[in-house]
Write a structure and sequence with these properties.
single chain; 176 residues; 8 helices
Length: 176
């Protein structure tokens, strides 16, 4: 029989005190749902398994910080899974464009400027300044939307929009 949110919160609270058996029961009650979410987010079973391991490792170390007032345990896990999936996507993106030696692109960057990845550099150079800075911070520095918003003193929604539009423009440019 599945456990309800109150029972899961109790197990998580006990795990926060170091109770390994409570954490094992918490894992057994929730891992299937987190794994299914991982497959949906990442589209790959192997990567979803890695995500599952990372999420529960984080959950073990952060169990003492969990507060039922901020949301149900499954929502807490889903948020961690989503954030970790985004991190994994960033990592895959960085590997796919082979960032070795690429400096922060400027608007004047050109394919022959020696920066490597000429087409990518050219395409990044075609973004408007806000998009270029936001994309660079998100994917090259690994900053979260909130961190970027604080850095540039702008609303998180603005940062998200700039990143989304910047990535769409990069995709169009790279495919042409």
């Amino acid at each position: 029989m599945p456990l309800n949110a109150v029972e899961l919160a109790d197990l998580l609270s006990r795990a926060g005190l170091g109770d390994r058996d409570a954490f094992r029961r918490f894992y057994e009650a929730t891992a299937g749902q987190v794994f299914a979410l991982g497959i949906r987010l990442l589209g790959d079973r192997t990567r979803a398994e890695d995500l599952l391991q990372d999420v529960y490792l984080r959950a073990w170390y952060r169990a003492a910080d969990y507060s039922p007032r901020r949301g149900e345990p499954l929502a807490w896990l889903a948020t961690m899974a989503r954030n970790r999936a985004i991190d994994m996507g960033r990592s895959a993106f960085e590997k796919s464009v082979a960032l070795d030696g690429v400096a922060e692109p400027s608007a004047e960057a050109s394919p022959g400027d020696g920066a490597g990845n000429g087409k990518l550099t050219r395409c990044i150079g075609e973004l408007d300044e806000g998009q270029r800075q936001s994309v660079f911070c998100a994917f090259f520095e690994g900053l979260s939307h909130g961190e970027i918003a604080r850095r540039f003193r702008e609303p998180v929604g603005t940062v998200k929009t700039r990143i989304r539009r910047g990535l769409a423009a990069l995709k169009r440019c790279l495919e042409s």
